[in-house]
Amino acid sequence: MQTMAFEALADPTRRRIVEALRLGERPVGELVDLAGVHQSGVSRHLRILLESGFVSMRPDGQRRLYALRPEPFRELDAWLAGYRRLWEARLDRFGDALERRQKHRAPSKQESPR
Amino acid sequence: MSQPSTAATAPQDKVIIERTYRARVEDLWELWTTKDGFESWWGPDGFRVDVHALDARVGGALEYDMIADAPAMIAAMQQMNQPLSHATRGHFGALRPHTHLTLVHVIDFIPGVEPYDSTIEVDFHTAGDHARMVVTLHPHRDPHFTRMSIEGFTSQLTKLERRFGAAT
Predict the structure, then answer these.
(1) pLDDT value at position B150?
(2) How far apart (Å, rounded) are the C-alpha atoms in residues B110 and A50?
(3) ipTM higher than 0.90?
(4) CA–CA–CA angle B131, B133, B134 (5° rounding)
(5) What is the least distance, in Å, from the CA of A85 to any CA of chain B?
(6) Core-most of A35, A43, A110, B104, by most CB within 10 Å?
(7) Which CATH fold would you assign to the domain A2-69?
């Protein structure tokens, strides 16, 4: 899911649409103004955001209203947290290795690291 | 000895992990750029690495085997029908001694995934008698870690919590 999500958000125009939708549900016309998107391209970007689950759409008379869906953002956040933990653990090992090297060096100098 | 701090920017951007150590920048640098230094810490919990080539120059090769060596990890890899060792290769993309380096890994061992480069940027700073290290990752270019996290490598959290719990 993450690769598709990142691809969906990789496009700067789509990120501007997402930013605009943070203010709340919007019709296409307002998104064109708020996100500075060309009318001709907005449908394609909204379709990609719909397909990747980032936005939902509901008809309101003649209008179509778009809104953000929280689920994929939560998933991304959870995935990033896992990724970060991998690296936190790796850097724990780095710290341990550094400490071992310093201890190994210390007996001859009897000094603490700078 | 380290003071962890972590910041993540927007999902489409990058993850930055920062640590401060009571050490010299030169000591940190050695852990990235020498064979014995790299072998002393690289790899996920439960693995060790055997370095075959580490040429700390711009474009210099980095080649090593990553080997499951903890009994629990060996059992887990066998259960997943994964090899206990796999050859990994990459190179140093940028190198400014004691200041900045970039490690580029070639991820070409994931079935069904086109080979891609995974880049890690590391910046080193001296702050009084401490050295600060900033690691910048680009997870959106790295589907490998999606797979790794799914397969349970996040158990490393336990180790992290234990360490932080004991640190204070």
Answers:
(1) 36
(2) 29
(3) no
(4) 150
(5) 6
(6) A35
(7) Arc Repressor Mutant, subunit A (1.10.10)
